[in-house]
Amino acid sequence: MLLVSSCAVKRPATTTKENVNTTNSTKNTDSLKKALKAAQLEEKLRAEFKDLLKSEAAGLPYPEMISKRYEKGEYHLVLVPKFLPDNQIQVLMDYLNHAGDHGLDNQQFSTADFKKQLEELRDFKSADTVKVHRRMAKLELSFINSLMRYSIALQYGIINPSKIYNHYAIPTSLPDSSFVTHIFEIRDLKFYLDSIQPKDKTYRALQKALIRLEQDTIPKPTPQRIKLSMYKESKKNQEKHSKTLKTAVKPALSKEALDSLREQTRLILVVNMERLRWKNKPAGQKSVLVNIADFSLDVMENGKSTLHMNVCVGQPGDKQTPQLGSMISLVQINPVWNIPQSIARNEISKYAADDRYYLANNNIKTFKKGKLVRDTEAIDWASANIGEYSFQQQPGSKNSLGKIKFLFKNASSVYLHDTPVRTVFKQKMRAISHGCVRVEKPLDLASALFGKDNRYNQIKNGMASGYPRAKFIGLPQQVPIRLFYYTAWLNDKGGVQFAKDIYGLDPIVYQAMKTAGNQSFEVVNSL
Q: Is 186 left (phi over 0), alpha (psi -120 to 50) or beta?
C-alpha cells in the first residue's frame, strides 16, 4: 500500500465553470463602477457648466442663442478644448490687442477678463478634474464673449445706425442666427480672424491713416476739405510730408492746437471706419451712390465710378436730406411739382403776398379744397388760411424740378431731380434744398440708368420739347440707390479726402461708439 501510494501523480485542481463566472463578474462590476463614476463626474461637470452659463449668460451677446447652442451640445465645452491645446486661443488675444487699428477700444470686447481667465488657467496647477474643468468653463464663456463681440464689430459695426440717427432708412443687415452658429463651427481661428478683416479699399486707406496719425507722422486736416496724398504707401512721401509738417505747421500752431486737430482728425477717421463696417451697401453690378456730405453723386458699375457729378442736398436742421436706400424704378419727364404744405405756407404764400402775379408768372395752379382757383390775384395771401389751399407747379422752364425727376420709394418723399438754376452747382456749400437732391447732369444720369434702351430717346426728346407734357417712364431694370453720409473717403488719386460735417452727425456716431460696450444685441432669424 505504501509503494502504490508513493507513485501517485499530483494533478492541478480542476477550475470549475462557477469559478470563471465569479472572476468575470468581479471584473465587470469594477468596470461598471468606473463607468458609473466617470458618468457621474461628467454629469457633474456638465451641471456645473450649465449653472455657470445660466449665471453669466446675461453678459454675453445673444445669450439665448448661445445658451441654446450649448444645451444642444449637452453642455460640453466647445472652443477651449478645440483651441487651447495648440495655443490657437492666443491668436484671438493678439487680434484684440490690435483693435485700436480699427479705431476700436479692445475693452469693448471684454479683453481684460479674457486675458485674466486665460492666464489663470495656464498658471493653475491641480490634478483635480473638477477644479480644472471649472477654470476651463470660465475661459470658455470669456472666449465666446470676446470672439463674438469682435466678430460682430468687424463685420457689422459696433452700433446700429437706425438707433442713433433721426433720419436713417438704409436697409442694414444685422447678425442672424446662422452667424452665431458659425462661430461654434470655426476650425482654424487665425484663418477666420483674417477673413473678417475689412477688405474695402477706402476702409484700408482710413485704417492706414489712423495708424500713422497715432504714430505722429502725418498732418491734420484744416476746416476746409483737403486731399491727403501723403496717405499713400511710399515711405519717401511719408518722410517728405512729415518734414513739411514740421517746417510749415509747427511754428504757426501751439501744441494744444495741434493736439486738438489731431483728436478732430482721429474722430473723423474712426467714425467713418465704423460707417464702412455697416452692412448697408447695395448688391448688384450697377448702383447710384450719393454722398450727402460731399454733395456728390456717382453711378457705380462693378465697383468703379462710371459717372460723377455735383449735387445739392437739404439744408441743415429739419430740411436735411435723410440717409436712405431704395430702388430707382421710374422717372417723370417734365414733372408736375405738388408743392409741399410746409413750402406753400412758409414760402409760396409769402411770395404771392408780395407779388400778386407770382403764381401766374411761375405757372403755379392753385386749388381750394380740391377745386381750381382761377382768380388768384384777388386773394389776400397775407391773411388767407393757407391750410385750405394746395399748389401745383406745371411743367415748363420755370418748374423747380427742372425737366426730369428720378423716383424711388421712401417714407420721406425724397427724389432726385433737375433744376432750372444751374449756377448752384458751382457753389462750394451746396446744402441748400428742402431735402430732395438736385443733380447737375440729369440727362447723363438718365443715359446711365436706361442705357441704349429706346426709352432713353423718349426722355431726351421729351425734355427738349417746346410743349412739355408730364410723362412717367419706367426703367428697364430697377437700380439700387443709396444716400450715404461720409465725411472721409478714398479719392480717385489714392488719398484720403475729408468733408465738412454739415449735419453734425460725426460726434453722434463717436459718442455712441464709446458706450457701445453695453449695447444689447439683436438677432435676425435666418431664412
A: beta
Taking the C-alpha atoms of residue 251 and residue 259, their distance in angstroms, rounded to an integer, is 14
Within 13 Å of residue 10, how many CA atoms lie on the same side as its CB? 2
Q: What is the dihedral of CA 438, 439, 445, 449, to 10 degrees?
A: -30
Strands (E), 154-303: 168-169, 227-228, 286-291, 296-301
In whole angstroms, how far apart are CA 334 and each of 25, 207, 331, 399, 466?
Answer: 98, 46, 10, 8, 11
Nearest Cα residue to 110 out of 63, 61, 66, 146: 146
Residue 7 identity (one-letter amino acid): C
Residues 271, 293: Cα–Cα separation, whole Å: 14
Q: Where are the alpha helices (DSSP H) in 362-451?
A: 442-450
User: Is-contact 172 278, C-beta < 8 A?
Assistant: yes
User: What residue spans of 254-365 are helical by DSSP H?
Assistant: 255-277, 341-343, 349-354, 358-361
Cα–Cα distance measured from residue 91 to residue 197, given in angstroms and rounded to the nearest whole number: 14
Reading the block at residue 410, the C-alpha cell is 421712401
Residue with cell 441654446: 68
Task: Assess whether pLDDT exceeds 50 at residue 525.
Answer: no
Q: What is the DSSP letter of 7?
A: T
Give the pairing type, strands 304-314 and 496-498: unpaired
The amino acid sitting at 241 is: H
**How far apart are alpha carbons 323 and 167 in whole angstroms?**
6
C-alpha cell, 108: 469693448
CA 195 – CA 188 distance, rounded (Å): 11
Q: For every residue of 386-404, which 3-state class applies, written as one string?
A: HHHEEEEECCCCCCCCCCE
Q: Which SS3 state, helix, strand or coil, does residue 121 take? A: helix
Q: What is the pLDDT of residue 46?
A: 87
C-alpha span between 318 and 90 (Å, rounded): 50
User: What average pLDDT does the segment 128-145 reach?
Assistant: 91
Question: What percent of the chain is helix, strand and coil (3-state, nearest 5)?
Answer: 50, 15, 35
Please answer whether residues 104 and 158 qualify as being in contact, where contact means their C-beta atoms are separated by less than 8 angstroms: yes
Neighbour-count burial of 151, counting CB atoms closer than 10 A to its CB (0-12 exposed, 13-18 middle, 19+ buried): buried
Residue 3 pLDDT level (bands cut at 50, 70, 90): very low
Is residue 223 within 8 Å of 487, Cβ to Cβ? no
521: pLDDT strictly greater than 80: no
